[in-house]
Predict the 3D structure of the following.
Amino acid sequence: MNALILIAEDEPEIAEILDAYLTREGYRTYRVGNGQSALDVQPLLKPDLVLLDIKMPGKDGWEVLAELRRRGDTPVVIVTALDQDIDRLQGLRIGADDYVVKPFNPVEVVARIGAVLRRTGGSRAEPVLRVGRLEIDTQSYVARVRPSESGEPDGSAQGGVELALTLTEFRVLAHMAKSPNRVFTRSELIDACLPGGDALERTVDSHMSNLRKKLDKAGAADVIAVVRGVGYRLGGA
């Protein structure tokens, strides 16, 4: 079946416009007018993506987004009139997959939803990814390097070393872990892991440098390889 989009929007005209454009593109939709209703129906409907306004009666979008992230990794696209950088950063920090400012072009919103669904695979992804000794929990946003089979000390408790990653570093690691040994170009990593589309390729290099240092410190050196002239590859640890 086509993807189901949960539209959480308290302005009926905007909700109707989004509903109409999404339906025209073949998506299934379900509309609610406040944050609590979105949280009530989400476990029942199991939508493939939530289109979320921030300023809603009762629970606002920030509370809804935080709760959705505690529950799992259902993709969320924020659509809001809040256009300050601090608002955008807060949304991405809590775990939004994209952020669209009102007034918007509904065609662009539909295109962004399609892009998010393509890169996330909807909400049906495995919650825990394992590549070698790397273990990445996409629901709790925790990544760790498990102890080596030899039992050699690696400076951690027996559960392994938990990596202190930024949200972007976690996104990059989880995205690459879904396709081990595949080479990702910088532009692919920008599209998949840095919502907003205004990041530069050198920004990716900076994030990757920090990520590799943290992996090295945790005893997983050379897990991420630089493929000269192409991009980066994640292998076993």
